[in-house]
Write a structure and sequence with these properties.
This protein starts with 11 loop residues before the first strand and ends in an 8-residue tail after the last helix. The protein is built from 18 helices and 18 strands. The chain has helices at residues 19-26, 42-46, 58-67, 85-91, 120-128, 152-162, 165-168, 175-183, 204-211, 228-231, 237-251, 256-264, 364-367, 373-393, 405-414, 422-438, 449-466, 472-483; strands spanning 12-15, 31-34, 71-74, 94-97, 103-104, 117-119, 144-148, 188-192, 216-218, 267-272, 275-282, 289-300, 307-318, 321-324, 328-329, 348-349, 352-353, 359-361. It is of the alpha/beta class and 491 residues long. A six-stranded parallel beta sheet has the order 6-14-7-8-10-9. It has a five-stranded parallel beta sheet with strand order 3-2-1-4-18, with helices on both faces. The protein is globular and about 70 Å long. Mean pLDDT is 93; it is low at 1-7 and 485-491. It has three domains: 12-102 and 330-416, 3-Layer(aba) Sandwich (Rossmann fold); 104-328, 3-Layer(bba) Sandwich (FAD/NAD(P)-binding domain), CATH 3.50.50; 419-491, no CATH class. The structure holds flavin-adenine dinucleotide and NADP nicotinamide-adenine-dinucleotide phosphate. Belongs to the ferredoxin--NADP reductase type 1 family. FAD binds at residues 20, 35, 43, 79, 364, 371-373.
Length: 491
């Protein structure tokens, strides 16, 4: 699978170790990956819902790539801060930016920063163990939660809020999140979209999961589906099937068995359509949210391109928790890198960053924050192809040798930055899995960068002591094995 070159040893580095970073790396002959966190895999670790473990299997392929001697992983390196893009460009023939979309779109309405209002990005980061989101501790002490946006992230959040904790406790959800969800008072989740049922952004698999979610029942409104049946025949097949399932959920009388299940359900979810946020409502002392004011919309046009237009009517919905799930957003990394702040992407042509030879982008940074892992894979392969073509055609000059990681490692050392290697990540991985095993979960994630680095320092200390010993390599293997055992949990 590795592309080979007639030219000698071109040096390429990738910034970010999410799916885009790894899929780009898969197609390059020799590559260094710089990752801000000590742990790899981006949103596969910190985004994908804990109750979707099968999606995380892509990690196995990424691990094979990372273990290959052609690929080196440098975790704990914050590009843009610890090392600049210009320094990477001097050290490498090509630099691929794959640092994802770490910001979020804002609603741009008054009250957005009130307590009780969260972005889905932070909420997801919280339950998935993203170190920067561990302070969030969302207040779940209310009956109704409103989620704005009707994409798959909105559905992930709704499911996590409503799923029986007996299911969640067998996943890699973090322990603090699990404990908060056990105590949660949330009984009703409204998933609010600015357009109609035929414009929802979620997919059928995720909607079906909501329909089948144990101990919950849907509360859809029949009126929302007026005229939808007539439009079905013109819809593309995936949209048609999804709309049919929504209609069935909203309009059909369920089977007796299903009625019985629903009557016993303690929690409710619903889709609300044609509603846009105009203000987050605060309690009298303005300290936290008590609801949201929504503009009632009508649709102009039809199909995917239909536009929401306010009718002038407004509606207030009472809620104690508001999660805005209207999309992630890439952020500029360095003033030297072109950035289209309107689209929030690095402007590019097939991954080639405009006006900057030798600089590329892939993944969500290249396309904007939509697309599943498979979409990200394809766009990353395209970028890798562009890199290879440019090197072969001479558009990127690889005739003069570049120092690659050698010079960057020197800079990092001068700056007191200690990169985490892939085998060091595997030590963290082993520890997390053994901690998880102890509580019947696939893993119990370390929740702070300090904890992660501390664990490595401890391991290193033992190995350092043993290094003078001729038995070092055998001992290294034994230590690694032992670290998987519960008896040597140090953190
Ligand atoms: C909540 C959520 C759930 C999802 N669930 C699914 C799912 O179930 N199935 C599916 O197919 N797709 C899912 N997706 C989509 C999938 O996660 C994306 O398609 C994919 O992760 C995008 O890959 P990426 O590499 O561009 O970005 P990311 O995965 O975000 O990776 C970017 C990486 O860059 C690193 N980075 C950031 N800044 C720097 C820096 N300055 N220096 C160095 N490194 C840096 C980050 O730490 C991160 O590791 C989900 C997305 C979200 C948001
Ligand atoms: N299980 C999975 O496979 C899975 C899970 C999670 C995420 N993902 C993928 O990850 C990607 C990102 O998901 P996402 O849910 O963050 O994004 P998304 O699919 O783009 O959905 C965003 C939602 O926010 C709405 N929205 C955007 N701007 C708004 C505004 N200003 N006011 C009100 N509503 C607004 C959109 O409505 P409009 O349509 O009207 O713009 C849409 O309903 C998607 O491709 C998704 O499929 C996949």
């Amino acid at each position: 699978r590795w592309t080979t070159f007639s030219i000698c040893s071109p040096k390429v580095c990738i910034v970010g170790s999410g799916p885009a970073g790894f899929y780009t790396a898969q197609h390059l002959i020799k590559v260094d990956i710089y990752e801000r966190l000590p742990v790899p895999f981006g949103l596969v670790r910190f985004g994908v819902a804990p109750d979707h473990p099968e999606v995380k299997n892509v990690i196995n392929t990424f691990t094979l790539t990372a273990r290959n001697s052609r690929c080196s992983f440098y975790g704990n390196v914050n590009v843009g801060k610890d090392v600049s893009i210009e320094e990477l460009q001097q050290a490498y023939h090509a630099v691929v930016l794959s640092y994802g979309a770490e910001g979020n779109r804002r609603m741009g309405v008054p009250g957005e920063d009130l307590a009780g209002v969260y972005s889905a990005k932070d909420f997801v980061g919280w339950y998935n163990g993203l170190p920067s989101c561990q302070e969030l501790s969302p207040d779940l002490n209310c009956e109704t939660a409103v989620i704005l946006g009707q994409g798959n992230v909105a559905l992930d959040v709704a499911r996590i809020l409503l799923a029986p904790t007996d299911i969640l406790k067998k996943t890699d959800i973090t322990q603090p999140a699990l404990e908060a969800l056990v105590q949660s008072q949330v009984r009703r989740v409204l998933i609010v979209g600015r357009r109609g049922p035929m414009q929802v952004a979620c997919t059928i698999k995720e909607f079906r999961e909501m329909v089948n979610l144990p101990d919950t029942r849907p509360e859809m409104m029949a009126d929302d589906f007026e005229g939808v049946k007539e439009a079905l025949k013109d819809l593309p097949r995936p949209r048609k099937r999804l709309t049919e399932l929504m209609m069935k959920t909203a309009l059909e009388i369920p089977s007796e068995k299903e009625q019985e299940r629903q009557s016993k359900a303690s929690r409710v979810w619903a889709f609300r359509f044609l509603r846009s946020p105009i203000e987050i409502l605060a309690n009298p002392d303005n300290s936290r949210t008590v609801g949201i004011r929504l503009a009632v919309n009508r649709l102009e046009g039809s199909g995917d391109g239909a536009r929401a237009v306010p009718t002038g009517e407004v509606e207030d919905v009472t809620c104690g928790l508001l999660i805005s799930s209207i999309g992630y957003k890439s952020l500029p990394i360095d003033p030297s890198v072109p950035f289209d702040s309107h689209k929030a992407i690095v402007p590019n042509n097939m991954g080639r960053v405009q006006h900057t030879a030798g600089l590329y982008c892939s993944g969500w940074l290249k396309t904007g924050p939509t697309g599943v892992i498979a979409t990200t894979m394809n766009n990353s392969f395209d970028t890798a192809r562009s890199v290879v073509e440019d090197m072969e055609s001479g558009t990127v000059d690889v005739s003069a040798a570049r120092p690659g990681s050698q010079s960057i490692s020197g800079l990092l050392e001068e700056r007191g930055v200690k990169p985490v290697t892939f085998s060091n990540w595997e030590k963290i991985d082993s520890l997390e899995m053994s901690r998880g095993e102890a509580s019947g979960k696939p893993r119990e994630k370390l929740l702070t960068v300090e904890e992660m680095l501390q664990h490595l320092t401890w391991t290193e200390l033992i190995l350092y002591t043993l290094k003078g010993n001729p038995m070092f390599f055998i001992m290294d293997a034994i230590i690694n094995k032992l670290l998987q055992c519960k008896s040597i949990q140090m953190v």
